[in-house]
Amino acid sequence: MAGIGVSGQQMWILGYLSGLEKGAWISPSKIGIDYGLNVAAFPAVRHHSAWASPKLSQLQKKGLVERSDKRNRRGWWRITDAGRLYFKQHKDDIR
User: Fold this and answer.
1) Alpha-carbon span 29 to 53, nearest angstrom
2) Cβ neighbours of residue 10 under 8 Å, at least 6 residues apart?
3) Structural domains present in the chain
4) I need a labelling partner for 7 at 20 to 30 A (CA). Which of 17, 50, 57, 73 fits?
5) In sequence order, what are the residues at sequence separation of 6 or more whose Cβ sits closer than 8 angstroms to the Cβ of residue 34?
């Protein structure tokens, strides 16, 4: 992957988050479940927060997503403006 070293699965997450309303927060469980239902080679395998959270943490270190620590949304994620721009610039790099 070109740029700052984002994996194909991380690009899928950025694309997924880019499709949400700007500023929307989402749980890692929802991200993982939707990945399993829409993309995974083995959809019967449960994808959930244990799948999504490490990938989101890596994206956070790159400034592409942010995590909420507010009580009502603790552990939820949203894409940053930098993440939207990165996805827009690199979405054609996905193989």
Assistant:
1) 8
2) 55, 58, 59
3) 8-84 (1.10.10.10)
4) 73
5) 16
Q: Using CA atoms, how far apart are residues 44 and 5, in angstroms rounded to an integer?
A: 29
Distance set, CA 43 to CA 13, 35, 48, 59 (Å) = 16, 9, 12, 24
pLDDT digits (tens, 9 = 90+) for 13-30: 999 999 999 999 999 999
Q: What is the pLDDT of residue 2?
A: 47
Q: How far apart are CA 74 and CA 27, in angstroms?
A: 9
Beta-strand ranges (E) seen in the chain are 65-67, 77-79
pTM for this predicted structure: 0.85
